[in-house]
Amino acid sequence: xxxxxxxxxxxxxxxxxxxxxxxxxxxxxxxxxxxxxxxxxxxxxxxxxxxxxxxxxxxxxxxxxxxxxxxxxxxxxxxxxxxxxxxxxxxxxxxxxxxxxxxxxxxxxxxxx
Length: 113
Hints:
Strand order of the largest sheet: 1-3-2
Largest sheet: 3 strands, antiparallel
Mean pLDDT: 81
Number of strands: 3
CATH topology: Arc Repressor Mutant, subunit A
CATH class: Mainly Alpha
Low-confidence stretches: none
Distance between the termini: 56 Å
Strand content: 5-15%
Number of helices: 6
Number of domains: 1
CATH architecture: Orthogonal Bundle
Radius of gyration: 16 Å
CATH superfamily: Winged helix-like DNA-binding domain superfamily/Winged helix DNA-binding domain
């Protein structure tokens, strides 16, 4: 018997896709719990190792942080550098695009407070 998995609906399923709108494309990349917080912390720290990042973001699980970092890296907002040591030393930081998003988040913070 064949089993099928239900797809969890995401933002792309709820809103029509307009690929000509850059803001829409960016907001889809930021969709998901903790993503903006990860960008915010990485922007303030410049570079950060996984453990330090996890301590800075209170309440996030190891699994969720790993997932969000992978998603942000795939979207070109975060870079990842791994040194070939035992244990591996992994450092994260924001790409040029990620730094621009961080600047926008800082401006939002100024008007939201």
